[in-house]
Amino acid sequence: MKRLWAAWRMKYITNADKETGCIFCNALAKPDDAQNLVVRRGERAFIILNKYPYTSGHLMVAPLAHQASLELLQPAERAEMMELVSECITALKQVYRPQGFNVGINIGTAAGAGVPGHVHIHIVPRWNGDTNFMSTVGEVRVLPEALEETYRRVKHALATGE
């Protein structure tokens, strides 16, 4: 049997990097956006890379306000979140040329929310055939790019439109 080394997965599986408090609020409170994977800060919402992505370019958009569900947000917060989602899709199309996207929100633990206290939208670029035996049988995802490179490329595309 061949083995694929994915050391970053062990931190996720064992919760070795488990933060105290809300991961989104913690990232916003720290000054180093690159280290905390915050790609863009808006007036009411922000874009952050998923530390444990499903695919390269997996982004999340969250409000600055710590709220568990969309209806608890002000209309302007929801509007800015959707505008940022649109900007993410545009940037990801330029950077990765995906063939599709999954865009979704899991509200509450029963719906699969990993951070149920702070609502957020996942933007996941997809390619035909990206669900294969590695992810379905091996429970392993192959990511061809380090998070630091993803951060650099997405941040550049959001800033320049290139």
Condensed summary:
This protein is α+β, with helices and mostly antiparallel strands. It has helices at 7-14, 23-29, 75-96, 133-136, 147-160; strands spanning 38-41, 45-49, 59-63, 100-104, 121-126. Strands 1-2-3-5-4 form a 5-stranded antiparallel beta sheet, with helices on both faces.
What this model shows, in words?
This protein has one domain (24-160): HIT family, subunit A. The chain has helices at 7-14, 23-29, 75-96, 133-136, 147-160, and strands spanning 38-41, 45-49, 59-63, 100-104, 121-126. The chain is an alpha+beta fold. The chain has a five-stranded antiparallel β-sheet with strand order 1-2-3-5-4, with helices on both faces. It contains five helices and five strands.
Provide key terms for this protein:
5 strands; disordered N terminus; alpha+beta; HIT family, subunit A; globular; 162 residues; 5 helices
Topology:
Elements: H1 7-14, H2 23-29, E1 38-41, E2 45-49, E3 59-63, H3 75-96, E4 100-104, E5 121-126, H4 133-136, H5 147-160
Antiparallel strand pairs: 1-2, 2-3, 3-5, 4-5
Helix pairs in contact: 3-5
